[in-house]
Amino acid sequence: MTNADVYQALGVFLAVFITHAIPFLPIPGYFATVYYATSHRDPVSMALAIIATALGASLGKLFVFLYGYGIGKIIAGDELAYAKKLFERISKLGIDIAVFIFAISPLADDVLYIPLGAAGYNLTRFFISLLAGKTVLATVIVLWAELMTDLFGEDVWATIITMAVTIALTVLVLRIKWSAVLKAYEEGGARQAAVAIIKSILRRA
């Protein structure tokens, strides 16, 4: 591994950090991870890509956590109140588990982290759960990039396909109406909430 490789990994960290530090940014910065992973396929570089991605995403979301209720209210509007109520229901299953589960998804986790920051949740416990989840996600992304490269044989196609999948998932998740999900959860539990999520994703604009 050369100094250039290390600098490129630092670029991955910065790209992921910046995009994750902005609440509700539609496009996450994992494209840099994918490009790095498809062009550096040795085990050391793969591990470095995972570490850079997990740390960048975790520190970025830590900023989101610290934004708290004030900025969250400006960005999310009334839906923040419903998201906070949903978080209060989820927390009965364990806040740390909820943070970990949301962290595994590359999308829409700000609806949990901002209310957590507003509620003054323990910073250390939050970051540990967050880092664990983002490490799992980063590992999946790097392995996915490796698989795409093996299948298509060209770095550019692996990157394009992963970008397309990420953008498609982003658009779908951003369509979730959390007020409807909360209402469904209160009336019928987790199963009805899942149905409400699917319905809100598939609803007409």
TrEMBL record:
<protein>
    <recommendedName>
        <fullName>DedA family protein</fullName>
    </recommendedName>
</protein>
<keyword id="KW-0812">Transmembrane</keyword>
<feature type="transmembrane region" description="Helical">
    <location>
        <begin position="156"/>
        <end position="174"/>
    </location>
</feature>
<feature type="transmembrane region" description="Helical">
    <location>
        <begin position="6"/>
        <end position="32"/>
    </location>
</feature>
<feature type="transmembrane region" description="Helical">
    <location>
        <begin position="126"/>
        <end position="144"/>
    </location>
</feature>
<dbReference type="GO" id="GO:0005886">
    <property type="term" value="C:plasma membrane"/>
</dbReference>
<feature type="transmembrane region" description="Helical">
    <location>
        <begin position="44"/>
        <end position="70"/>
    </location>
</feature>
<keyword id="KW-1133">Transmembrane helix</keyword>
<dbReference type="InterPro" id="IPR051311">
    <property type="entry name" value="DedA_domain"/>
</dbReference>
<keyword id="KW-0472">Membrane</keyword>
